[in-house]
Amino acid sequence: MRFEECRRLVTEMHVQALAIDSARDNVDHHFNYICRCQAEFERSHSAQNAAHSELLECFDRDMETLESTALHPAVVEHCERRRAEAVRAAELNAELKGEKNGLSDHPGSSGISGSSAGSGDVGSDRSDNVISSTESSTGNEGLGGEGKGSEGKTRSTPPSPSMTQPAEGEKSRMIPPIRRNLLDCVPAERIRRWAQDCARSHDAFNAKVADLAAMFNALHATTEELFMTGPDVDIAALEEELERAQGKLAEQAAVIQCLDKDLNTVGRLVEETVGDLASNRGGTGSVGGGALDACAALDPMNELHVKSHLPAVEAVDREMAALHWHCAQCKHAMGACVHRQLQSISALQSQIHQTRNKQAGFKEWGKRQEQKFRELRIARRIPRVYRACLAEVARRVAFQEMYAAQAGKLAERM
Asked: Is 69 helix (H, G, I), strand (E, B) or coil?
């Protein structure tokens, strides 16, 4: 009974160890997933961080490149002509408004007022035409202007330079700026403020990424410590003890079998002796020599039983009792170990889940960073795009000349 109870306890401890292994396998699966995600994020962030750092370091040089890249003389001439037209239109509008204000302050005779009214109608029509021409001439100057009206309020995060446009009411009053290089064609102040905001966001993002890396390293150390922690009970050693106990039980069974055999022998001798005594009751009453010899032969058997067999049986019984007590203590320790490790695994799974959510959030943050630095990339590509535009213009002019020459030849042939 004790041996069977010990076997049952060892089997239950083996099942508990399998449960811990199963929970560890689950943790290992999810931890390997976030390890792959972390490695992928670190690779992408390393490349992105290098590109963004290079953009911030070379921003001043990019702005100097824009300033040193002169516009084509035809573009400069066109801009100056439009600016002059806008200035003349603004002066004319101011003169017309001054005339209207003077007439309203000094009303004259009916004839004079009528003539002045007529001239006022003509002037108003002329003013409307000038204003409309000014709107058409300055309607596309939003990118090159500095956006003075839209910067009245101070903002912590500047608006995107490529997405901000002047208010509709300011477009009609805006005079095109002087444009002689590429820097005059972009909102330079907004781009500089945008670069400063990108630098602050870049530093904050790198600090948070460092915190994420530290948290992941701590989680990695905790996970490795959990995997290196084994059960408090050596189940293999208990199974070896059970095998040795089973061998001793086999020896005990052999001793008991020998005792049973000797018991049967003694019982038979007793029966024979009793039979001899019964048969000699009517005679002399003396016991036969064979019975006495049989009784004398029991002394060595008794000595063997007392000195060897019975102590061996009692020793095996004590060992089985000690083994049963040891298995019960191991079962108690194994239960406490399982409870403690399952709690650790549960806490670790919660940390893994939080880390996975943070990794997803940092990936989205990285995408937003890429979108934020898009404006600086555009500012860097402007000179290259401008040169490509000039090359395309030259190619089209050459094609136009070639087409005109071929058309002239065909006209002469006809």
From this structure: coil
| 8 Å CB contact between 363 and 38 | no
DSSP string, 355-404: HHHHHHHHHHHHHHHHHHTHHHHHHHHHHHHHHHHHHHHHHHHHHHHHHH
CA distance 46 to 268: 96
d(CA 34, CA 359): 8
Count CB-CB contacts under 10 A for residue 315. 12
- Tokens standing for residue 376: 């600086």
Q: What is the C-alpha to C-alpha distance for residues 273 and 109, in angstroms, rounded to an integer? A: 174
Q: How far is CA 200 from CA 113, 155, 205, 367, 378, in A?
A: 65, 15, 9, 16, 19
How many helices, marked H, and strands, marked E, lie in the chain? 10, 0
Q: Name the average pLDDT for the chain.
A: 77
Tens digit of pLDDT for each residue in 234-279? 888 888 887 887 777 777 777 777 777 777 777 777 777 777 777 7
Reduced to 3 states (helix: H, G, I; strand: E, B; else coil), residue 405 is helix
Q: Percent of the chain scored above 90 by pLDDT?
A: 26
- Unique residue bearing structure tokens 């993002």: 205
Eight-state DSSP code of residue 172: T
List, as one string, the DSSP characters of 68-101. HSBPPHHHHHHHHHHHHHHHHHHHHHHHHHHHHH
CA distance 77 to 409: 34
Tens of pLDDT, residues 313-334: 777 777 878 888 888 888 888 8
Write the pLDDT tens digit of every residue in 169-212.
444 457 777 888 888 888 888 999 999 999 999 999 999 999 99
Give the integer Cα–Cα distance in Å for 121 and 175: 26
For residues 51 and 202, what is the distance between their CA atoms, to the nearest angstrom?
Answer: 11
Query: 310-372 and 2-57 helices cross at what angle (nearest 10)?
Result: 20
Distance between CA atoms of residues 362 and 215, nearest Å: 13
DSSP bridge partners of 70: 181
Whole-structure pTM value: 0.61
Residue 21, classed as helix, strand or coil, is helix
Per cent of the chain over pLDDT 70 is 76
